[in-house]
Amino acid sequence: MFSQSSSFARTVAILTLGCKLNQADSQALARELLAHGCQVIDRPAPADALIINACSVTHVADRKSRHLVRLARRLAPQATIVLTGCHEQNGSGHDLAQRLGADWLVANADKPAIAQRLLRHWQEQGHLGTGTTAIEPSDGLRTRASVKIQEGCNEVCAFCIVPRTRGRERSVPIGETIAQVLARQAEGVKEVVLTGTQVGNYGRDLGLVQGPRELLAGLLAETAIPRLRLSSLQAQDISESLLRLWQNRRLCRHFHLPLQSGSDRILAAMRRRYTVDEFRQAVALIRRWLPDVAITTDVIVGFPGEGDEDFQRTHDLCQELAFAAIHVFPYSRRPGTVAALAKEQVPHAVKRQRLERMLKLARTSADAFRARFRGRTLEVLWEEARTRQDGQAPLWRGLTDNYLRVYTSARDGWASGLCAENGSASGRCPGFDLANRLLPARLGEPLDDGLWGELESAADAPPVEVGPGGLACR
């Protein structure tokens, strides 16, 4: 949740679907509204305004977006309903907004103006309260913040609607990005996720030759944020020159490399800019530099023309590469894309069967990656607590730099150093707020989508090991 204060003049619910780029946009919007005295929440609820930051990457995402608009209207009949983000493009904006029950339809390019437009609207209606100033960000904004470094895509993959919804590539200059990260640092943010539509193409429109590397080098030199994480790269973006930067332990050991297919024939039909062999080499290079790295991926099953042999190659490659996580999507026909016109559409039943096989492999692969770290001590950024119905202490959740989800209880496993910090020398604490703290934890048994972690004091953490190329490995 962005904020729980009850002293604000107006309440705005921001409901976000889809990618980390949408999350970055929503966080920026939330910060602006908070600064003007609004209460901002991130769940469907009665409010003065509800903003649906939509996704249109698949027909399922479109359906969820429409559902949220209708739900918002039922929850708050008198509220201003705003639909923005990547939503379906059929029909005029006015017709679409009316059909779904939204008051405003705002294009991605106009998203930054939503807050000011809402404030002016309330002022004109005589409903704007006095508000407050200097609102502190809540833990939901202070722990892990997404910063948009780039938007748009020039690649035009055969299956993707995003170039139509996000436009051509546009990069945020390095100086402006550093300023944004410094602002998050001043707020106490511990991790910044650098996000965009095509992060690997960052800076091309600015004339930069090695944009991502230049940006990261600038951020490492000019900021002190404890963690910097890249949201996504492509196989062709990986080089030793880039990976050398990871000698600085502030860069998170996590790379998201979308594969989409393990068949060269299908990759060519998708208009992807790498071959299976090139993808395999990129993964091997990353692991050579960062042995404990998490490499996650996206896979599309049922792309037009995908035969049984193509699918089997994808399945076998994913099994070989042992990803930390595999996000599996059945191909979704998007009007306006090249693939939508293809005659060899894969039957739904076949797509469903392939989806189930890939999801099974995804679970096995994720379990195997997590199992490698049982018994190890890693630093965890603790984010939020989840109340338990059995009356026990809240279950805290956090994330390691290499993308392991970790859970713990604030009443269990405390080292004496942490308890002494909070006024107890007994070695046990009656409960403690872990939000936005980077603390080492010894990883144990599997739990939900992660591992149980026993908290340790920093003094008890194992020494840092040195890996290939002089890289610090935790």
Please give a structural write-up.
The protein has 474 residues and is of the alpha/beta class. It has 3 domains: 10-125, Rossmann fold (3-Layer(aba) Sandwich); 139-371, tm_1862 like domain (pyruvate-formate lyase- activating enzyme); 377-473, no CATH class. Helices cover 33% and strands 22% of the residues. Strands 2-1-3-4-5 form a 5-stranded parallel sheet, with helices on both faces. Strands 14-15-16-18-17 form a 5-stranded mixed barrel. Helix 3 (93-100) links the parallel strand 4 (80-85) and strand 5 (104-105). Helix 7 runs parallel beside helix 8 and helix 12 (308-321) runs parallel beside helix 13 (348-371). The longest helix is centred in the last third of the chain and has 24 residues, at 348-371. It is globular and about 65 Å long. The protein starts with 9 loop residues before the first strand and ends with a strand. The model is unreliable at 3-8, 129-139, 412-417, 422-430 and 458-474 (pLDDT under 50).
List the helices and strands and how they pair.
Blueprint: E1 10-16, H1 20-35, E2 38-41, E3 49-54, H2 59-75, E4 80-85, H3 93-100, E5 104-105, H4 114-125, H5 139-142, E6 144-148, E7 150-151, H6 162-166, E8 170-171, H7 174-186, E9 191-195, H8 211-222, E10 227-230, H9 240-243, E11 254-256, H10 264-270, H11 276-289, E12 294-301, H12 308-321, E13 325-330, H13 348-371, E14 377-386, E15 395-400, E16 405-409, H14 416-421, E17 437-447, E18 450-455, E19 465-466, E20 472-473
Parallel strand pairs: 1-2, 1-3, 3-4, 4-5, 6-9, 9-10, 11-12, 12-13, 16-18
Antiparallel strand pairs: 7-8, 14-15, 14-17, 15-16, 17-18, 19-20
Helix pairs in contact: 7-8, 12-13
